[in-house]
Amino acid sequence: MATALKEEGRGNSIMDTVLYFTKGYTPHDFNFISTIVSYYKVAYLTLEDFDIEERPFPEGVHRISWPCGGKFIDPEENIGSKFGEVIAKVKPIVVHAGPILTCTYVAALSSGSIPIVAVSWGYDIMKDYNANLTNRMVGRWTLERCHAVICDCQPVEDVIARLTRAKIFRFPWGINLSLFTGREAGKDKKLLPTSEYLNFDEEIENPFIILSLRNHYPVYNLETLIKAFLAAAIDIPNICLIVGGDGALRGELEDLVNNSSISCGRKRIKFTGCLKRNEVKQAMLCSDLYVSTSLTDGSSVTLLEAMACNMPVLVSDIPGNREWVQSGVNGFLFPAKDTDALKENIFQLSSLKEEELVRLGSAGRRKVEEKGNWETNRSKIIMSYQHVLALKGSY
């Protein structure tokens, strides 16, 4: 496999550069580098071709192409040596690397004296780390060689704190509260602009629209949502379900719907694929309830966006969600994988009066304003860099 490095955008090795090493290019990455580039130049390196963010890189960020194909577990690839080539060329003052078991691990193999700020993406610690003994060994070895760690919620921090003495910077990755706002008071959702993805196969009077935006992978457990919805649709004639996102399980999920004997439910489910940023907000404003059936999560940004839009939320009872949702106060929790419990919650929430839904949504918005404002939280990224640079002489 070729080992040459190719740069796109700005020039060669420079002082005060952060090497940003991540899996692909996502909205989270855009938010991070938009902050970092205000203080440092950014060399952007990806382990895989996994670009789902539509916005271009901010000025001052240059991308390094590294054709390793993500084969970090193949010793023949000598991935540590290849990463060493990147370090030699870029000469960063800090390596920002995550997820832990992939990018941070590679960085720990060959960053030498360059300080590493590890970044947990939630699932790497809450799910992948516990998958097997090898992952636990790799995770501990990696975190022992990092100089600071960024994470987004208390459950993740609790695990990391047992594995490293490095300083942990915990903050919800948060959202732009000026972009995600609720419907204007008194404005009917039917008067909002609509798109094809909000049209269902039958005309439904006063629809109660349930929205899911998680991607179609096992960790998000969408099978439970679809089964619960189909069962609830028998008794609730006006509920509809928008299934956003995409992924490896989409075909299976569509087959689950198409092969269902519950015809009334089949006609009220719409698969949209991944929505663009402006479509996400529009879908939230036109919907009545946000649902997430995830089996593991940190601070889910989609959940925070829904809460910021004053949406009542119904989410699985897992540690990451419990940091944001208190049942009966600003949403509801249901036991993960429990189809019957989810169905019952859908029934109860779809029966609530409008003023009670508004109360739940308003409480959710306040919670996000309190803890999930990206403009407030993002300064901790730079604080983590300043911390490791101040300690550089001690390791």
Describe the secondary-structure layout.
Blueprint: E1 6-8, E2 17-22, H1 27-36, E3 41-46, E4 61-65, H2 79-90, E5 94-97, H3 100-110, E6 116-119, H4 123-126, H5 133-144, E7 148-151, H6 154-161, E8 167-170, E9 208-212, H7 222-233, E10 239-244, H8 250-258, H9 263-266, E11 269-273, H10 277-285, E12 289-292, H11 301-308, E13 313-316, H12 319-322, E14 332-334, H13 339-350, H14 354-371, H15 374-377, H16 379-390
Parallel strand pairs: 2-3, 2-5, 3-4, 5-6, 6-7, 7-8, 9-10, 9-12, 10-11, 12-13, 13-14
Antiparallel strand pairs: 1-4
Structure write-up:
The chain is an alpha/beta fold. It folds into two domains: 6-174 and 374-394, Rossmann fold, CATH 3.40.50; 189-371, Glycogen Phosphorylase B (Rossmann fold, 3-Layer(aba) Sandwich). The chain has helices at residues 27-36, 79-90, 100-110, 123-126, 133-144, 154-161, 222-233, 250-258, 263-266, 277-285, 301-308, 319-322, 339-350, 354-371, 374-377, 379-390; strands at residues 6-8, 17-22, 41-46, 61-65, 94-97, 116-119, 148-151, 167-170, 208-212, 239-244, 269-273, 289-292, 313-316, 332-334. The strands form two sheets. An eight-stranded mixed sheet has the order 1-4-3-2-5-6-7-8, sandwiched between helices. It has a six-stranded parallel sheet with strand order 11-10-9-12-13-14, with helices on both faces. Helix 2 crosses helix 3, helix 3 (100-110) crosses helix 5 (133-144) and helix 7 crosses helix 13. The relative contact order is 0.12.
